[in-house]
Design a protein that fits this description.
3-stranded parallel beta sheet, 3-stranded antiparallel beta sheet, alpha/beta, Glutamyl-tRNA Synthetase, domain 3, Arc Repressor Mutant, subunit A
Length: about 450
């Protein structure tokens, strides 16, 4: 595959949720796997609703997921390109001015519905004469601009949905430019995709209808269109869609809840595909597993509770190198390897850090037994064989075995009923701390 150029184009009108992350990751993983480029393009032409804070927040959310754009662009800074495209479309007679108010359009639509006709714009504005337009403008009306669709069937081979087609005769001529000269999403997106050399448009299936319109614009402006892939949308366990507005399942709230970024990524990418949702140790592993052709056409239903169990499974897989930056300076590789299997969230590391290097409250069930065991602790240096040698000696001296042998030692040494293998923890706890916790009677 020649290196693809892909883009994620969120409108910064809210924070992204796990469903948006699905789109971002699909694009990013394809770029990453094939050595391509990933563009983060803020679709911020709606100045009333877009904010710089939301844009910054989205970048933070993506960075947390491990999604690093090669380029960040803002459509609000690229208006001149869109204006040039408008001129080109006007001179090709593909854009025409229309003057209807929203109220007039609504009334017309109701009439059409009452007559059993499809609610499609009737192209009344195309019949306006020069004089009609002059009169409307003299009344103070400003035109919005519609694309004159070619009423043909537009076809494309969707990389998820296969052979796709839309009969453009069934669509209203879309408005590309509003009365106030601002742009709707449709045209800037195409202009940028052309200018940035986007090879694959990978987005949610809520954009399928736009694709027919946009392919017509691509053809008018550039003579050809990129490849398209429309993926199914994530829905929650009850089948409900996700919304940026409610903040539910936003990436920032998931981060705060303590779930792992890689668990979120695995759920976002693998749910609703023929691949099993499983923990991965890196985004590269996920990139290798991911294939657009595996994405299902049915809704991608996921259970938010799955994020918790996948978080634990992910932690169990992560290497020291993958988490080193998040650990404290004194946390060693041996420590991480000893404790990762017992974490349900990353924050649990603090508990085990205190066990090996801090203060804990030992639980002493049988003080005499613990003191005798303390007396049998071998001299350091210790390694992973020390535990077996020591408990063997304790067993020989006291006759305790099985749970009666191990459980009181675990409680005394860690203060916990359960935890990582003591063979690994004991050398990290060290002789001095072990003696203190066991009761120090016989040193
Ligand atoms: N702003 C649009 C969205 O978030 C972009 C769609 C596209 O990728 O073309 O849905």
């Amino acid at each position: 595959m020649t290196p693809p150029v892909v883009r994620f184009a969120p409108s910064p009108t809210g924070r992204i949720h796990i469903g948006n992350a699905r789109t971002a990751l699909f694009n990013y993983l394809i770029a990453r796997r094939h050595g391509g480029r990933f563009v983060l393009r803020f679709d911020d032409t709606d100045l009333a609703r877009s904010t710089g804070e939301y844009a910054a927040g989205i970048e933070t959310d993506l960075a947390w997921l491990g999604v690093w754009p090669d380029v960040v662009a803002r459509q609000s800074q690229r208006i001149a390109l869109y204006e040039a495209a408008v001129e080109k479309l006007k001179s090709a007679k593909l854009l025409y001015p229309a003057y209807e108010t929203q109220g007039e359009l609504d009334r017309r639509r109701k009439l059409q519905q009452a007559r059993g006709l499809p609610p499609i714009y009737d192209r009344a504005a195309l019949k306006l004469t020069h004089e009609d337009r002059a009169r409307l403008e003299a009344e103070g009306r400003r035109p919005h601009w519609r694309l004159r669709l070619d009423h043909r069937v537009v076809r494309w081979t969707d990389l998820v949905r296969g052979d796709s087609h839309i009969d453009c005769a069934s669509l209203s001529d879309p408005v590309l430019v509003r009365e106030d000269g601002t742009f709707l999403y449709t045209l800037p997106s195409v202009v940028d995709d052309i200018e940035m050399g986007v090879t694959h448009v990978i987005r949610g299936e809520d954009h399928v209808t736009n694709t027919a319109v946009q392919i017509q614009i691509f053809e008018a402006l550039a003579g050809g269109a990129p490849a398209f892939a429309h993926h199914n949308l994530l829905v929650d366990a009850s089948g409900g869609g996700l919304s940026k507005r409610t903040g539910a399942l936003s990436i920032s709230s998931l981060r705060e809840s303590g779930v792992e970024a890689l668990a979120v990524a695995a759920v976002a990418v693998l749910t609703g595909s023929s691949d099993e949702v499983r923990a991965v140790a890196s985004l590269d592993e996920l990139a290798q597993a991911f294939d657009l052709a595996h994405v299902s056409r049915n809704a991608a239903r996921f259970d938010p509770a799955e994020l918790k169990s996948l978080t634990a499974k992910t932690l169990h897989l992560l290497t020291f190198a993958a988490v080193e930056a998040r650990l404290a300076p004194g946390d060693t590789e041996a420590f991480w390897n000893a404790v990762r299997g017992n974490l349900t969230t990353f924050a649990d590391v603090a508990l085990w850090r205190a066990v090996v290097a801090g203060d804990i409250a030992p639980v002493i069930e049988d003080a005499d037994f613990c003191r005798r065991a303390a007396g049998l602790l071998p001299p350091e240096p210790w390694d992973e064989t020390t535990w077996a040698a020591w408990t063997g000696a304790v067993k020989a001296a006291t006759g305790a075995k099985g749970r009666a042998l191990f459980h009181p030692l675990r409680l005394a040494l860690t203060g916990q009923e359960q935890g990582p293998e003591l063979a690994k923890l004991l050398p990290l706890i060290g002789r001095l701390r072990a003696l203190e916790r066991l009761g120090r009677a016989t040193v």
